Amino acid sequence: MAKSSGMDAFANLGTEVREALSEQGFSTPTEPQQKAIPPLSDGRNALVLAPTGTGKTETAMLPVFDAIVDARDSPGDRPRDGISALYITPLRALNRDMMDRLEWWGDRLDIEVAVRHGDTTQYERSKQADDPPDVLITTPESLQAILTGSKMRVALEDVAHVVIDEVHELASAKRGAQLTVGLERLRRVAGPFQRVGLSATVGTPGEVGRFLVGCGRRDPDRPGDREFETVEVAAGSRTDVRVLDPKITDRDATLAGELAIDETTASHVRTIRGIVADNDSTLIFVNTRQTAEALGSRFKTLAEREESDENIADPTGIEVHHGSLSKDVRIDVEDRFKSGDLDGLVCTSSMELGIDVGRVDHVVQYGSPREVARLLQRVGRAGHRRDLVSEGTVVTQGGDDTLEALAIARRADEELVEPAAIHHGSLDTVANQIVGVVMDEDDIHAREVYETVTNAYPFRELSEPRFQEVVRELDGNRLLWLDEESDTLEKSGGTWQYFYANLSMIPDESTYEVYDMSSRRGIGTLDERFVVNFAGPGETFIQRGEMWRITKVDEEEERVEVTPIADPAGEVPSWVGQEIPVPRPVAEEVGRIRGEVADALVAGSTPRAVAGDLAERYPIDETTGAAAIDAIVDHVEAGGPVPTDDRVVIEGSARTVAVNATFGHAVNETLARLLAALVGQRTGSSVGMDVDPYRIEFEVPHGVDPGTFCEVLETTDPDSLEAYLELALKNADTLKFTLAQVAAKFGSVKRYREGRGKFGGDRLLAALEGTPVYDEAVREVFHADLAVEETAEVLSEIQSGEIDLATARERTPLGTAGRSAGTEFLVPENADADVIETVRERIRNDRVILSCLHCNDWKHTTKVRRVREQPECPECGSTRIASLNPWDDETVAAVRASEKDDGQERRTRRAHRAASLVQTHGKRAVIAMAARGVGPHNAARIINKLREDEEEFYRDVIRQEREYARTQSFWD
């Protein structure tokens, strides 16, 4: 049959498939189908990149189905009794969706489709081995398992097509590196086969394509099956994203009081609910499970209040979905959203991939998405109709958060997606797959194993000496036998047990059940790292949108026992989730915007004009633009150098030094570890650090100032950076934790938890240093957290003058802007200088209501830092000014009401007490009453201590905040 292209792409398919297409209502192909079906029908390998909802699954599978039908109906060909095609997805939930989606085609074309993953029953597995399906939908881990079964290996001999869905998700993980070797092991069984990768978007299609097909460096005689085509449909041109920092309204002040949150968060809740109400179905993406739970809790509380309000008949239905919830809860929520019973779903990356939840009209991203790929992947979930633009709104919190979202939105429009972070040469994956090949073939020459592994793209540069080191480590751990005379690898007594215990390259980390003692039921799970680092009796956290207090952590049962908190509004969650890392190009664009804004302001432009210019260049309104540049305006007004993409500014105060560097998480983390190690070495004291994409904060000993950090940056040899970092890592918990996990994959310890229990981290490190296990742990930490080459470039550019290095004598508005992102937290018992500075800057950026109690005509909301030392009324000149928290409008109203009741009298007395404090003590009283849980009564107690030392004053404020968090008195 002659091959066609373009709008006739379906003409490449046989009669049966075209008739099935007509029955399904497919009259014309979508754009990816137009482009990809012709080469796929021709049997070529391809990487298909297209937005979600454009028919990628059918693009890949229609030619596969057609080939299976054609092979079955062609006379004279050897019948294929085994599996003809594998469809591999990274999630079991995607397997379930793919089965639902492909089952109709299988029934219509008389092609058997089946699913195989960890939950598949033994009966189904036996059935598949005895009577293999034509198409098997599976996961990377299940492929590892079936490659070793004698019957399944026979069935796999007929594989002619392998489709890998969401290939970008696997390309950046060790699971993906493992899969590439698994495909080479499959090739040893089935011979060359067609490979098709599917994804919404990737930053480096060429590299991901090679990841998909392998490099074939060890079989140069057959290069043809290592070639591939990239079929790409631009995602950026199909998305319409706006960035919005909602303006605070009067309604938000009321809502803040109802939900026990600040007005900014109240405006976010109101805005998101408005978007949900304007659409039939909305996904609300957040960056951490903790944020999902916190936001879900706010929605749930508001819905409960509205249900009791007779004037509101149908409150918006919004639920939470993330990976720590039980499977039953997740499926229930997915089904309710798909059926239309829910209007919105607050979700994490659990919904980024193509899990079928029906039609999505709009996507909200709460906070910056941190990466271009993540924004495109998430917003791409909306608009599941042919050629429909995907619409999304990024709701931000001003400052860095908004500028970051603007940079990402612009870069998304231009398809500037981050490169895939492929794990090149991960040695624990090599170890795992060496054992896998031995499991496949009982005994095999080491040279053949080496060739199989290095035909996979991530391992193409693995040297023979390094391979031999890994083999000897496995032999020493008795996971296989090495016959040194014949260089043959054979099974040992530990081979089988190790391999089936390590089918996955996901770290062997326990999951703790969260168990509600009041209802005697499980409510979800927590990761072991989370429990080890944060959990303890009395700690509080949010799950399923509800607040819980830990009563017991049971290590033996791997269970966290909790009780619900009766008044969640009175508690502050003590756990904060880890954010997604921001790449260097995004952070540098934020720095560039800062520089442009600062230059315009210095040249005489007004903040309003600058905000208007931003609104012309980026997808925001002027109000959002004004909030985004607020800290830059303050910084320029205060004077001093502005940190930008080509200027690093180092500032200090008390025992805190901050390095303002707009280089993103990985470079800043690398700089932080280098500076902490070298400054600590010079002073003989430990140096604490805290990192975000735009600044690094250090807690330093007395006598260390910004000049010390400048000297280190100007004199450290960039070529020695890696060596310095490895030395610094030896004292880091992250290396010890990673080392224990890698050791388990090498069989050096039976399990990660047993290893942690038997050896301390230091003893394990000492025992394994100099082995491939240690080298892999270092490589993984470097890969996951650091950016050595880029940081060496930064050091070189600082030393050559390409990047300016400046200092500031005091903390600056931009240097402290990252500390007031609205995170609620419990402060430590012994507040040090760094914590004091954190609280000081948070309060400075909080808003207060100033109200004149003399004339009752003036009320003004402003940030604490903008309050004069002695506030006075601009209408009547009185200094009798009450300072109230933003949600305290009821107190202002009570003061001005003509008729009094007991509640109003109480609020009036409160306001007059506040005004008396401000009249007597000025701005210090405003600061004290702006803190969490410090009303006029407690503020008076703090101020009456007559602290001359400002740090002691803030220590008293912190103690009161901690007391509030424990006693729940404030939100009442």
From TrEMBL:
Annotated ranges, domain Helicase ATP-binding: 37-201
Keyword Flavoprotein among UniProt keywords: no
GO molecular function: ATP binding; ATP hydrolysis activity; catalytic activity, acting on DNA; DNA binding; helicase activity
Segments forming domain Helicase C-terminal: 271-428
GO biological process: DNA repair
Family of this protein: Belongs to the Lhr helicase family. Lhr-Core subfamily.
EC number(s) reported in the record: 3.6.4.-
A Pfam family hit: DEAD
Domain of life where this protein originates: Archaea
Lineage: Archaea, Methanobacteriati, Methanobacteriota, Stenosarchaea group, Halobacteria
Database matches in InterPro entries: ATP-dep_Helicase (IPR052511), DEAD/DEAH_box_helicase_dom (IPR011545), DNA/RNA_helicase_DEAH_CS (IPR002464), Helicase_ATP-bd (IPR014001), Helicase_C-like (IPR001650), Lhr-like (IPR017170), Lhr-like_DEAD/DEAH_assoc (IPR013701), Lhr_WH_dom (IPR045628)
SUPFAM superfamilies cross-referenced by the UniProt entry: P-loop containing nucleoside triphosphate hydrolases (SSF52540)
The organism of origin for this protein: Halorubrum alkaliphilum
Enzyme class: hydrolase
Positions of region (Disordered): 20-44
Name listed for the protein in its UniProt record: ATP-dependent Lhr-like helicase
Biased composition (Polar residues): 24-33
UniProt keyword list: ATP-binding, DNA damage, DNA repair, DNA-binding, Helicase, Hydrolase, Isomerase, Nucleotide-binding
